[in-house]
Design a protein that fits this description.
- It is found in: Secreted, Extracellular space, Extracellular matrix, Basement membrane.
- Keywords: Basement membrane, Calcium, Cell adhesion, Disulfide bond, EGF-like domain, Extracellular matrix, Glycoprotein, Repeat, Secreted, Signal.
- It is built from eleven helices and 75 strands.
- The protein is mainly beta and about 1100 residues long.
- It folds into four domains: about 250 residues, no CATH class; about 240 residues, Green Fluorescent Protein, CATH 2.40.155.10; about 40 residues, Invariant Chain, Chain I; about 260 residues, Neuraminidase (6 Propeller).
- The protein is flat and about 105 Å long.
């Protein structure tokens, strides 16, 4: 079977390459060979215009699509889509993909038929001539299938124009596209036929109203939003999404006829994805190939949790590709091999480079990557990064977790002192809070009218070291409140998540990280109907609380008003398999009715319970101990109550998880398991042998474990409590009122450097006292690059040496990581990652900017905690502080190695200064028209200075001479958050990285033309250059990333062992570049500061020259 699959994939690769490699391919599809269309064929005509949607086209028979078989109407859009439900107005023009509606997209782009620029025709056709022709097309693509359609939807976009926006690209003037889609259906299946005639695709990109630039078209299918309780993206398949693959649509085929593409879109085989045909173009003409001798490297990688993306991929992200990347409409026919290798989502690197095929499922898909194909001297390069690595995905792990790479991918695991699945981690023993919403539609007793409630709050508080959960659901109508009392499992799922773990067993949070869905069914014995419970846990939110959504639907027995319900302790067996947990049990409960005539009648009832929990687990770590196939949840101290006055339903349960047992073996008598340990509620109970145990205070608390006290509150924590108390929201189980801003504190209680308003989505930077930094407020959806001005507390342990560890010979990258500088050797342009080591430890500082003096082999840095500017020699010795007075927030720093000066930006004082290398003779160059200056670099030979200002209202890159004259704006358009800046003296290129546009860009300052080097970066901060490469630090990846400018492609990434933010980066050259300026010799004849200019120099005096004999001259 594997050999067969390999042959199929090889055949698919040839199908796309042959039209490009062979002369004289099969004849092109002519326009006359399209299915007949136009008014004479009974076609309806879509109104002329932009972003229009047709009325519903009612179908005589059902269209099948993915797993649906009940689609009875479709909608046709101007923009190359046939929709299976009416597109909402906000999605009328191309934007996010997949859309919320089902879509068949033969050419998804922003098309325009305004003023008669083309026509869109559509109809349903039942005539034998059309259905027979559709059957023939399908048979060519799927020769083993017997398919006889009874109807066909024929949609034709004839001579449609591209929407061009305000720019009106002259290259697209007069360009028109013609293409056709036919959806053929029988009683059991549906197929899509896409037809692209010769010269039918004259343009391949259109202007995006969202991206504000030209973007390629997309050929794709999308199931749309799915889900009964929670709407989420269904499966979707993308077959072409860059210029090269779009151009090949008319030249190639998957059905043996050039320009004709066939897909199985609705049948039992398409539940998880559309199935493309796989007939090789040209084989009908007698071409033969020996599949056994193919020189193809085809890799199949099984992806786990870290590889699955369920959030919408932006249209922008899906169209990015490297300069030498060719997107292939398909590689594998899932019809023949889907059961063993279902197609999967793109790897993380697809942000920058195209995958051969992009198919997105809901459950553990696979990905097929073509590595490289070489025939007749032509090389076609495909994305080879099928294995997800920590370098690209560290952000998917919790900040309290470590990321490790394995042969097939990466996994996250919580560090010591924390528990969870690695993606989500919480402090061991710390109380937890769960917030969410509940809605229900419940029939009570024999009533035929349901009780409906929506948007009801659920809050839960968990004492983790007792496994005890307290859950409250508010505003439950009394007509149903008492009847819901037996349903303790609604809150019991939270108890399972944080059940006390016996040795070798795992509770729900350790397994799932609080990210899972649960569906349960309750059948009440002797009572008609049942109740379905659906819950979705979405992990930890920005407030550190777990989130849950719950829906109840069905029928429950009526319990009289005022009754009480008692549930005996019970056990339940949980059965584990890959990503699925199931359980079932029978439970009794006693209903005691209100006292009447001196008696309180009691009745015992029974219900049967079964549930399924689905989650994503990391499958790459083979060394991770397997979960026991069965674990037993023990629940005692069950308490249920309905408060009629407050309309609150309460459940309280104590839980532990362990082995299947009868009775109470000795092991269960450990106080940690049975809740008699006496540890503080903010402590973790650590079981020892037999009945021994210890209590350990949770992170953030101090004490002996029996008594734990919170570390003294900071100003941020006090402010937070004051605001919540004044708003009546001090109860942690109550949600924060909408519109209220509550400051966020970091793990150490200090103001988080980035603050956001949850209601508006705006974010801004704050200083150490919580005051907003001017010019940093960003619009919703963009996070400013804020810097923490408080150094993390120094951990107890042996003191780290502060002396510099000398560097070996060669060129090195130096990068800052909070309180240390690391060195990363370069061999050519290759990072020798295994040889990376610490260069300098300064744990009480937050180092931001780095610069290197190639003459004295000295590294300079800025520190925003003291604040100060320091330096150290690469040859070893103690670091020294050269400036510590009159600084606000020094960030970027640059060295003029010829003039022997340093320059730096200060974003707090909003100025740029210069000084000698020893920190003396300071002079302010600029202190106007600066808001958030950051990156700064010098061109020593030419005497130029460059810097960035990420002022949110007016981001810019400026330049001047080194003496401060001739200041001007170099770049102002299309900037977001320009952070890092570098100047390469060898190529004379100025390059920068932008965390707002997620781009790296370069230009030659002497030439106005500007080019993009790479899009799709995650959150770049600082950048340096060496040879053909840029190297930048990335906040989301916590990595140093190498970018090859020659091919505009990320080629490597280094992730330090310590997972904290990386800041400045510089290149420590083994020798200085050639060149000189007018300050190189004898300080240019100046008495003090010699500041180079193009072809000259200026002598300047320091700002404080009282009593100093200084001469200024040009």
């Amino acid at each position: 079977m594997l050999a067969s699959s390999s042959r199929i994939r090889a055949a698919w690769t040839r199908a796309l390459l042959l039209p490009l490699l062979l002369a004289g391919p099969v004849g092109c599809l002519s326009r006359q060979e399209l299915f007949p269309f136009g008014p004479g064929q009974g076609d309806l005509e879509l109104e002329d215009g932009d972003d229009l949607v047709s009325p519903a086209l009612e179908l005589s028979g059902a269209l099948r699509f993915y797993d649906r078989s009940d689609i009875d109407s479709v909608y046709v859009t101007t923009n190359g889509i046939i929709a299976t439900s009416e597109p909402p107005a906000k999605e009328s023009h191309p934007g996010l993909f997949p859309p919320t509606f089902g879509a068949v997209a033969p050419f998804l782009a922003d098309l325009d038929t305004t003023d008669g620029l083309g026509k869109v025709y559509y109809r349903e056709d039942l005539s034998p001539s059309i259905t027979q022709r559709a059957a023939e097309c399908v048979h060519r693509g799927f020769p083993e299938i017997s398919f006889q359609p009874s109807s066909a939807v024929v949609v034709t976009w004839e001579s449609v124009a591209p929407y061009q926006g305000p720019s009106r690209d002259p290259d697209q003037k007069g360009k028109r596209n013609t293409f056709q889609a036919v959806l053929a259906s029988s009683d059991s299946s549906s197929y899509a036929i896409f037809l692209y005639p010769e010269d039918g695709l004259q343009f391949h990109t259109t202007f995006s109203k969202k991206e504000n630039n030209q973007v390629p078209a997309v050929v794709a299918f999308s199931q749309g939003s799915v889900g009964f309780l929670w709407k989420s993206n269904g499966a979707y398949n993308i077959f072409a999404n860059d210029r090269e693959s779009i151009e090949n649509l008319a030249k190639s085929s998957n059905s043996g006829q050039q320009g004709v593409w066939v897909f199985e879109i609705g049948s039992p085989a398409t539940t998880n994805g559309v199935v493309p045909a796989d007939v090789i173009l040209g084989t009908e003409d007698g071409a033969e190939y020996d599949d056994e001798d193919e020189d193809y490297d085809l890799a199949t990688t099984r992806l786990g949790l870290e590889d699955v993306g369920t959030t919408p991929f932006s249209y922008k992200a899906l169209r990015r590709g490297g300069a030498d990347t060719y997107s292939v409409p398909s590689v594998l026919s899932p019809r023949r091999a889907a059961t063993e290798r279902p197609l999967g989502p793109p790897t993380e690197r697809t942000r920058s480079f195209q995958l051969a095929v992009e198919t997105f499922h809901q459950q553990q898909p696979q990905v097929i990557d073509v590595d490289e194909v070489e025939e007749t001297g032509v090389v076609f390069s495909y994305n080879t990064d099928s294995r997800q690595t920590c370098a690209n995905n560290r952000h998917q792990c919790s900040v309290h977790a470590e990321c490790r790479d394995y042969a097939t991918g990466f996994c996250c695991s919580c560090v010591a002192g924390y528990t969870g699945n690695g993606r989500q981690c919480v402090a061991e023993g710390s109380p937890q809070r769960v917030n969410g919403k509940v809605k229900g539609r419940i029939f009570v007793g024999s009533s035929q009218v349901p009780i409906v409630f929506e948007n009801t709050d659920l809050h839960s508080y968990v004492v983790m070291n007792h496994g005890r959960s307290y859950t409250a659901i508010s505003t439950i109508p009394e007509t149903v409140g008492y009847s819901l009392l037996p349903l303790a499992p609604v809150g019991g799922i939270i108890g399972w998540m944080f059940a006390v773990e016996q040795d070798g067993f795992k509770n729900g949070f350790s397994i799932t990280g609080g990210e899972f869905t649960r569906q349960a069914e309750v059948t009440f014995v002797g009572h008609p109907g049942n109740l379905v419970i659906k819950q979705r846990f979405s992990g930890i939110d920005e407030h550190g609380h777990l989130t849950i959504d719950t829906e109840l639907e069905g029928r429950v027995p009526q319990i009289p008003f005022g009754s009480s319900v008692h549930i005996e302790p019970y056990t339940e067996l949980y059965h584990y398999s890959t990503s699925v947990i199931t359980s079932s049990s029978t439970r009794e409960y006693t209903v005691t009715e209100p006292e009447r005539d001196g008696a309180s009648p009691s009745h015992i009832y029974t219900y049967q319970w079964r549930q399924t929990i689905t989650f994503q687990e990391c499958v790459h770590d083979d060394s991770r101990p397997a979960l026991p196939s069965t674990q037993q949840l023990s629940v005692d101290s069950v308490f249920v109550l309905y408060n009629q006055e407050e309309k609150i339903l309460r459940y309280a349960l104590s839980n532990s998880i362990g082995p299947v047992r009868e009775g109470s073996p000795d092991a269960l008598q450990n106080p940690c398991y049975i809740g008699t340990h006496g540890c503080d509620t903010n402590a973790a109970c650590r079981p020892g042998p037999r009945t021994q145990f210890t209590c350990e205070c949770s992170i953030g608390f101090r004490g002996d474990g029996r008594t734990c006290y919170e570390v003294e509150k900071t100003r941020c924590q006090h402010e937070r409590e004051h605001i919540l108390g004044a708003a009546g929201a001090a109860d942690p189980q109550r949600p924060i009122p909408p519109g209220l801003f509550v400051p966020e504190c970091d793990a150490h209680g200090h103001y988080a450097p980035t603050q956001c308003h949850g209601s508006t989505g705006y974010c801004w930077c704050v200083d150490r006292d919580g005051r907003e930094v001017e010019g940093t407020r960003t619009r919703p959806g963009m996070t400013p690059p804020c810097l923490s001005t408080v150094a993390p507390p120094i951990q107890q342990g042996p003191a780290l040496p502060t002396a510099v560890i000398p560097l070996p010979p060669g060129t090195h990258l130096l990068f800052a990581q909070t309180g240390k500088i690391e060195r990363l050797p370069l061999e050519g342009n290759t990072m020798r990652k295994t040889e990376a080591k610490a260069f300098l430890h300064v744990p009480a500082k937050v180092i931001i900017g780095l610069a290197f003096d190639c003459v004295d082999k000295m590294v300079y840095w800025t520190d925003i905690t003291e604040p100060s500017i320091g330096r150290a020699s690469l040859h070893g010795g103690e670091p020294t502080t050269i400036i510590r007075q009159d600084l606000g927030s020094p960030e970027g720093i640059a060295v003029d190695h010829l003039g022997r000066n340093i320059f730096w930006t200060d974003s707090n004082l909003d100025r740029i200064e210069v000084a000698k290398l020893d920190g003396t003779q300071r002079r302010v160059l600029f202190e106007t028209d600066l808001v958030n200056p950051r990156g700064i670099v010098t061109d020593s030979v030419r005497g130029n200075l460059y810097w960035t200002d990420w002022n949110r209202d007016n981001p810019k890159i400026e330049t001047s001479y080194m003496d401060g004259t001739n200041r001007r704006i170099l770049v102002q358009d299309d900037l977001g958050l320009p952070n890092g800046l570098t100047f390469d003296v060898f190529s004379s290129q100025l390059c920068w990285v932008d965390a707002g546009t997620n781009r790296a860009e370069c230009l030659n300052p002497s030439q106005p033309s500007r080019r993009k080097a790479l899009e799709g970066l995650q959150y770049p901060f600082a950048v340096t250059s060496y040879g053909k490469n840029l190297y930048f630090t990335d906040w989301k990846m916590n990595s140093v990333v190498a970018l090859d400018l020659a091919i505009s492609k990320e080629t490597d990434a280094f992730q330090p062992h310590k997972q904290t933010r990386l800041y400045g980066i510089t290149t420590a050259l083994s020798q200085c570049p050639r060149g000189h300026n007018y300050c190189s010799v004898n300080n240019g004849g100046c008495t003090h500061l010699c500041l180079a200019t193009p072809g000259s120099r200026t002598c300047r005096c320091p700002d404080n020259t009282l009593g100093v004999d200084c001469i200024e001259r040009k």
